[in-house]
Amino acid sequence: MTEYPVFLQLKHLPLVLLTVFGLHFLPGYPEAATMQEFQKERTTESLRQVKGLQQEQIEEYATRLHNLSYTRQRLFRALCKLPDADSHTIETLFQLATRVPVRFNSIPLLELYTSCLDATLAGSRNLLQTLEQTSFVSEQVLTPLANITIDKATTLLDLIASIQGTTEAGQWATQSLLAFPAIDPKTLLQAITLLSIMTEPQCRAAEKGLLVQGLRKEEILPLLSTLIRFNQRDAINIRALFSQPTLQVSNLSFWLQGFFATPTGERDTSFQQLSDTRKTLLLNSYHKAARDFIWQINNLHDITDGYGREIGSGRLAGSSTETLTSLFARLDPTTSHHFQDDFEQAVAKGNKREAISLLRQATGHARKQAATVLSAANIYLLLANGGELYDSSFRDILAPVLKQRIATQYGDRLLDFLLATDPHHLFISDFITHLAHKGRLTLFFPADPGHQQKILELVTESALKDQDSLILFSATFSRLLTALQPSARSYLIDLLLGELRGQTAEMALNLRVILQYYLDNHPNFLSEQDTTRILRMIQQHGPIDLAPYTHAPFERWRQDGRLTGLSVFQDDDDGRSSYASYSFSLLEHGYKPAISLTYSASPVPEQASQEANRLFHKLPTTPAGTVYDIFRLANRFSLAIDWQKRVNNLEVTQSLYVYQDRHDQQKLLRTFLTSGHEMFAQRGHSYWRHEQLFEPLEALLEENMGVVDSLQSGLHFISLGSCGGMRAYSRINRIFNNDIAILATIGTGKAAINNPYNRKLFEIVAGDQNLESWKEIETLFKNIFSDAVAGDYIQPGSLPAILHRLQGTLKAGETGRHGTD
Prior knowledge:
There is one protein chain. With 821 residues, this protein is mostly helical. Helices cover 60% and strands 5% of the residues. The chain has 45 helices and eight strands. Strands 2-3-4-1-5-6-7-8 form an eight-stranded mixed β-sheet, sandwiched between helices. Strand 3 (641-647) and strand 4 form a beta hairpin. Helix 11 packs parallel to helix 13 (220-227) and helix 25 (428-437) packs across helix 27. It starts with 12 loop residues before the first helix and ends in a 9-residue tail after the last helix. Residues 1-32 have low confidence and may be disordered.
C-alpha cells in the first residue's frame, strides 16, 4: 500500500504551511484551530451531505476517521459525494476508504469521478484498483487529467482506459496534450486514439510538437494526422525540429506539408532551396537528432540486442529459429525484402548456421541502407558528431556516402558544399576535425592551397565558437596539419595568431597554449617563418608555464605504500576476451591472484572461495582455460580478483571485476573514490560507458554520497579503453573538476595498448621515485604507441589534457602563471 505524503505535492504547498504553522494567521480561523480540527470539520461536513445519516452516526464516523491520514480522509470525503452514498452504504464507504491501497495522486481523479452524476460505488472501487496498478509513466500522465472538465463518469473511465492502452511514448505525448488549457474530453479522446496507432518515433515527435509555442487546440488533430504519415527517419528529425526554441508555429505547415513531404531522393535539392535562416534551424535540428541516427547505425555494426549490445556467436548458435527470425524482422523493409526468401528457406530447413550467416549479411546491408536514405545535411551532422560514431560507421559507411553526394551535386568541391550547407559555419570545425582524426580528410580535402585556405578560415571561425569545439580542434590539430600543404599550414598559423586580438581573454589564452605547445613539441609541422611568428607572440605576451598542467600526483600515490587499480569488464564476447588477455599479461609479469576483500560482494560464499583457490592453484599450469573459468566464477559470485605484486617495496594491485548492475556499480565506484585508490579502467565497448562510469558517478554526486572531495582531489587516473570521442573525454574531465589524468581512445581501443599501459604505469611509478610529470610517462611509453595508433589516444599531459586543466585553474582564479593578456 503506497501513500504519497501531501508535502511532496507542490500544488499543496499552502496546505503544508497550514500543517506546519497552523491556521491562526488566516482570516476566519480562530487562533486555537489546528490542522487536525480543520480536517475533522471538513470530514464532518462531508458526512452531513450523505443522505439519511443521523447526527449520532455523523459523530461516530467523524471520530473513527479522526486519526486517519490526510490522504484517506480526503478519499472518504470524495466517496461521500457519490450519488449512491447514503446511510446504507456508509459502512462500505468507510471500509473502502480505510483498507483499499491508494496513492495520493489518485485522489484528485477519484474526486473528479465522484462529482459526476453517473458515478457509482462499484465504479469508484474499480477506479482505485486501476490507478493502484498503473506504471510510473501512466501515473505521471493521469495525474493532470484531474484538471479537465468532465460531466460524465463514463467519459473519464474511457479516457483513462485509452491512455493506459497506448505505448509509453504515446503516454508521454498525452501528457503534452493535457498541458493545453481547457482541452475538451472529445478532442482529447480523438487525439489519444491517433496516438495509439502511431509508432514510437511518431509519438515522440508528437510529444514535442504539441508543446510548440502558440499551437491552438483546433490544430491538435490535424498535427497528429500529419505526423502519422512520416517514416521513422523523418519522425526523428521532426521531433528535433519541434524542440528548437526559434521554431514558429506559423511555419509548421511549411515544414510538415512542404519540406518533409518531399520524397527522400529530392530532399537534398529541397534543402539547398531553403533560406540561410531555415538551413541553420534545420542543421540545429539535425544536430539534436544525430544521437538517434548514430545509435541506429552503430547498433548495426553486428547482430545486437535491443540495447545495442553484441550477441555473441555462441549465444546466436544456441538461439531458436524464432529468436533469429525476430532479429531479422527488426531490419528495414528494403533489406528484409532483399534477403527474405533466402533467410526463410534456411529457417524452414532448420539450417541455423546458414540463417545466422544471412542475418549477418542482412545486418551489414541494413547499416549501409540506413546511411544511404539520409540527406547530405543529416550525414554532415553525423560526421560532425563523429566522436560518438564507431570508426567503421564513420570511415566505411557514412563518409563514402557523403563523398559521393558532394561529387555528384557539387562537382567534388568541398568548399561549395560547406558554404551551401552550413551558411553560418556552425559545425564546419567539428566536421573537418573529425575527418582529420578519423583519417578521412584527404578523401574530401582539395589539393589546391587556395581552396584549403578558404576552408581553414571557416574551420577557425567555427572552432572558436566555444571551449569544447576548440579542445576538439586541438585534439586533431596534428592530423589536420599533416593533411595540409605547407603554405596552408602557415596560413592556419597566421589565422590563429590573428584571432588572438579579437577573442576573450580565456579563448586567447587557449590559443596561446596551442601555438606554444606545437612550437615546443611538434616543431616539424612549422616552417621557419611560422616559428618566428610564434616566438614573436610569446615575446609580446610572455611564455606560459605548462609544467603545472602536466604535473603528476605520483608522490601522493606512493605515500600509503600501495598502488591500486580497478578494471571493470563486461560479460560479452569482447569483455571476456579483454579480461582474459589482461589476466594473461598480469600472470606473465609476476602478479599473483587472490579474492579482493575490498571490491568483492560481501560476504564471499565459502563455495566461491574454495573454487577460486582451486583455480588459482591450477592457473600456472593451464592458464588458457583457467582464466575463463575465473571470469565465469567472478561473474557468478560478484567477485573482484586482486592481482598483486611488490615493486620497489610498494604493493601494486590490479583488481579485475565483471560489471553486475547499476546499483552495484555505484557502490563499486564509491568504494574506489573513498578508498583513495588511484586507477579506474573502463574496458569494453563505448556503449557500456554510461552504465559503467557516467551514470554511477553522476548519481553519487546527485545523492551527495561523500565523493566530492575525492573527485576534486586531482589524485585519480582514468583509463577509457573503449572506442569513443571527445565528448566523453570532456564529460569525464568536468565530473572531476578538470583535475584528472585520463588515457582515452577517441578512435578504436586496443588491448595491445590498454593492457601494457595500465599494468606498466604503476610499475614505472613504483620503480622510479623521481618521476614528476605525465610528459615523462609519455616518453617512457613511446614504444607501445606506433605512429598509426598514437593519434587514436589522448594521453595525460597532451594538449587537450592541458587545456582542460587550464580551464579548471581559470575557474579557480589562478591566473598568475599565464603571462600577460
